Amino acid sequence: MLVEAAVALGLSAALVAGGFAFVNWWLPDPTNPWTIRAAPDSLRFAMAMLFVLAPLWWLVRRTREKIKEIHPAHWWIIGALAFLSAIVLAGDAITLLYQWFSGELTGRVGAKITWLGLVAGGALALYGGEMRAGAVGGDFVRKAGTFARAGVMALVVFVVVAGFASVGSPSYARNLRYDELRENALRELVWRIQSYALERGSLPASLSDVLSSAHGDLSLEDPETGDPFDYKTLSESSFELCAVFALPSPLTRACGEDQRCRRLVGEDDISLHSAGKWCVTRTIDTPLKDGSPRMPALVPLRD
C-alpha cells in the first residue's frame, strides 16, 4: 500500500505538470518567456514519468484487488494519500487563483483550472469511491471506482499522445537542443565582437581575429555540422552573424509575426530565430580613428 500511495501521488503530480505544460505550449504567455522555453522540457519530463508510473500504478492496484483480506492499515494509508494529494492540488489551485487575481484573464488559467479539476475529480472519485465501497460494500460504488480508474488512465493516454503531438519525436528534441547551442554560441560571439570593437576601435575582419584575442573557449563552428558561422562586416560599425537553425525557436512559434508580442517578450532577437539560415545584425558605437567618441545614433520611438 505504501508503494501504491507513493506511485499514485507521483502520477497525480505528473498529470498536473503535463497538462499545465501542454497549456503553456499551445496557449503561450508572451509576458513570461520562461514558461514558453520550459514547456517542451516540462512536457517531456511529465511524459517520461507517466510512461513509468502509469503501468506501475495499474499493476499494483490489480495485484492488491486480488487480495481478499485487506489489512485495517489500508484505509489509513488511503486517507494519508488523499490528504497529500489534496495538499498538492490545493497548492496548484491557489497558484492559479493568484494568477487570475493578478490580471491573467485569459484562456490559459481557465484551461489549467479545468485540467486540475479533471485530475482532482478523478482522484477523488477513485479513492473516495474505494473507501466508501470498503465501508458499505455497494456494487454501484465499486463500479464507479472502476469507471474512475479508467478515467485516470484516459487522462494519462491524453497527456502522452498530446505530448508527442506537441513537442514531437526524440529527433525533434535533439534538433531543439542543437538550436539552443547555436543560440548560445551566437550570443557569445556577438558579445566578443562588440568587446573587440570597443577595445580596438574597429570591427574584426574575421572571426579568427576574435578567437586570437579571446580569453577562454570560444566556438566558431556549428555544434552539429562543424560548419563555421557566417560573419561579415556591413559597414565600419555594423556586422552580420549567421547560423543555420533546424527549427523555429519556441518564442518564434509563440509570437509568430506579432511585433507587439515580440516586444512584450523582451528577449533579444537571437531567441526569435526561424528555421534555416538566420542572421543577426548589430551596430556598434566604436571610437573613431582619431580617438574621438562616436555619437550614438538616434532610434525613432515606436507607437
Word description of this protein:
The chain has two domains: 2-167, no CATH class; 172-283, no CATH class. The protein contains nine helices and three strands, in the order H-H-H-H-H-H-H-E-E-H-H-E. The protein has helices at 2-26, 33-65, 73-101, 107-136, 139-167, 170-200, 207-213, 250-255, 259-265, and strands at residues 230-233, 238-245, 276-283. The chain has a three-stranded antiparallel β-sheet, with helices on one face. Helix 1 runs parallel beside helix 3. The termini are far apart.
Task: Summarize the helices and strands and which ones pair or pack.
Layout: H1 2-26, H2 33-65, H3 73-101, H4 107-136, H5 139-167, H6 170-200, H7 207-213, E1 230-233, E2 238-245, H8 250-255, H9 259-265, E3 276-283
Antiparallel strand pairs: 1-2, 2-3
Q: What is the mean predicted local confidence, pLDDT?
A: 76
State the separation between the terminal residues, measured CA to CA: 62 Å
Task: Report the sheet with the most strands, covering strand number, pairing sense and barrel closure.
Answer: 3 strands, antiparallel
Whole-number count of domains:
2
| Cα gyration radius (Å) | 27 Å
Weakly predicted, low-confidence segments: 290-303
So how many helices?
A: 9
**SSE series:** HHHHHHHEEHHE
Strand content: 5-15%
Q: Going across the biggest sheet, name each strand in turn.
A: 1-2-3
Number of strands: 3
General form: elongated
Percent helix: 55-70%
The secondary structure category is mainly alpha
